[in-house]
Amino acid sequence: MSTTIIGALTGAILAVVALVFGFWGFLLTALFMAIGAVIGRIASGKLDVRAVTDAFTGRRTS
Fold first, then answer.
1. What residues make up the domain containing 38?
2. Is the Cβ–Cβ distance between 62 and 55 less than 8 Å?
3. What is the pLDDT of residues 18-55, one digit of tens each?
4. Residue 61 clears pLDDT 80, i.e. is over it
5. How many domains are there within the chain?
6. 41 membership: H or E segment, kind and range
7. Residues contacting 10, CB < 8 A, separation 6+
8. What is the 8-class DSSP label of residue 2?
C-alpha cells in the first residue's frame, strides 16, 4: 500500500470515529493510532528509542 492510500484510510477512520463518538472519541482514537504507529516503528527497527531519549534529554541533537 502506498502512503497516500494509508493516509486516506487513516483520515476516513478518524472522520467516522469523530461522527460516531464525538470529539473525545476522536482524540482517544487518534492517540491510540499514534501509539500503535510508534510501537510498529520500534518493532520494525525503523525507530531507535535510545536516540529519541537522548534527543529529549539533551545529550544529542536531532
1. 3-57
2. yes
3. 999 999 999 999 999 999 999 998 898 888 888 888 88
4. no
5. 1
6. helix 3-44
7. 33
8. -
